[in-house]
Amino acid sequence: MLAKSHEQMTNLHEDTTYILGELIMEGSLDGGNNPIVIDGQFNGDITASDVIILEQGKVTGAINTQTVVINGYFKGNLVCESLTVTSTGIVEGEVQANALSIDLGAEVIGSISRVKKESN
Amino acid sequence: MDKLGSKTIIGASATFTGKIANASVVEVHGKVNADLIAEKVTIGEAGRFDGAIRADLVVVSGHYEGKMQAGSIWATATASISGKLHYETLQMDRGAALNCHIVHNWRAKADDPEQSNAGNSDVPLPDASNSAKTGTVPSSSKKGV
Amino acid sequence: MFGKNSVSPVAAPNHSQINEDVRISGSITVSQPLVMAGQLDGDIKAGELHIASTAIVSGDVTAQNVTIDGRVYGVIVADAVYLSATAHFEGQLNCHGIAIDNGAYVDAKFIKETVTNG
Predict the structure, then answer these.
(1) Which helix (H) or strand (E) element contains residue B27?
(2) Residue A19's domain spans which residues?
């Protein structure tokens, strides 16, 4: 996952959303079916296919995606299929994930449970 | 980690509604509903921006609606702009659709903004001052490159 | 007792091991490293603890370092916890360092805490 993001990072793609640098965004972001890479600050809701929070990234709010890779900071509610928290990552809040990969050094505070299926 | 600078790109399928602060270079290929203060803003051909923009340089190839205050504005052939444009230098390519109130603002610095890679030459339109009140722009639209 | 005919223990001489077929109801306290491969209805207090893939522990675990390959239902208080791909954990985790491998089943509350087990 990280290798993929590095490749995306060296050629910035038009289809991927990048929130980099000192940028501060607040509100509702829908990445469509494309990834979102965050190195700045974001407060609010995010819906996308993948979310990658880089080391300096700070996200608070709600994330609802397929995969999430957290190298930076996240606080809030997270619902995803697969969550990876690397050694620099900090996750605070309620996480619903079916696949987990947490590296030594990561900080996780809150709760992790399986994705609650909505009954039809 | 690669130093990516502080470019912000709103991807082609993305939609954002909210507030943006501390921006420097912003590229919009999706839909944005926000107010933005930045150094350079590019609205791509598929991009759509609703809201106020205050920037040194704005390149519009897509759709913009709102109030724009910029040093330099370049509306390319696929641009569609409505609302208000306050500019110091304006370049409009043949094909651009401007349906807005255009004001030439002398109060801002006369300095040209940083080198833009859009190839926007810093030669202002000769009769720029005529477009002050009305929504029409003199037909001396230059091909920008 | 430790002759050629005896079964060589999986754990090193000063380690304890509870084999897969053992079922315990009650609490376990051990200061040397422990490999737990059986079933426990109760609490464990240990230093270095390895909960093997066949283990089922329903109770609280207090330890310095815990490696979990099996099932744990309860509160874990530890310095470092490692949940491997075969781990199944439901409960609460108070620990300083955590690592979780892809494949682990986790349904738990996470609290960050440092514990030094004397």
Answers:
(1) strand B25-28
(2) 2-108
Q: State the ipTM, two decimals.
A: 0.85
Q: pLDDT at residue C95 above 70?
A: yes
Measure Cα distances from A42 to B30, C4, C77 in Å.
17, 66, 33
Inter-CA distances, A11 with A2, A74, B130, C12, Å: 15, 25, 43, 53
- Enumerate chain B positions whose Cβ falls within 8 A of a Cβ in A: 1-2, 4-24, 29-30, 34, 44
Regarding beta strands B80-87 and B53-60, do their DSSP bridges make them parallel or antiparallel, or are they unpaired? Answer: unpaired
Distance from the A43 Cα atom to the nearest Cα atom in chain C, whole angstroms:
23
Reduced to 3 states (helix: H, G, I; strand: E, B; else coil), residue A58 is strand
Q: Strand A107-113 to strand C105-112: parallel, antiparallel, or no bridges (unpaired)? A: antiparallel
Note whether residue A119 is domain-resident. no
Look at residue A29 and tell me if it is in a domain: yes
> pTM of the prediction?
0.79
Question: Average pLDDT, stretch B77-82?
Answer: 96
